[in-house]
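REQUEST ID: PR-0412
SUBMITTED BY: lab tech R.K.
PRIORITY: routine
TASK: structure prediction, single protein chain
INPUT:
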Amino acid sequence: MLYDQRDDSWGPVTHFRHRQEPYVQITFPDGTTTDGKALAWTRGKVYAVWVIDEDQHRQLQWMDANHVRRIDRDQSSWRDPYDDMGHYYPAAPADGWV
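STATUS: complete
OUTPUT:
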């Protein structure tokens, strides 16, 4: 299930560090999948972002946690250009290029 807004009954929200959010594969109720990032979570819900078109417009939505599976950055079909490269690649050169 997808939700437009968070419900207070879901409990406290935890956020990942900015630019260090984990990559996820999202499975929608119709069975289609896309890759994105998990920005925040509660015990049973995840607030995710993903790109919806080639102009890089983004969709943000709360969803049940069972719709989300964590993946490595290198497995994602989309990569956030603002990532903290040192977080994802600790042995990367200082200039951040991988």
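NOTES: DSSP finds one helix and seven strands in the chain.
REVIEWED BY: pending
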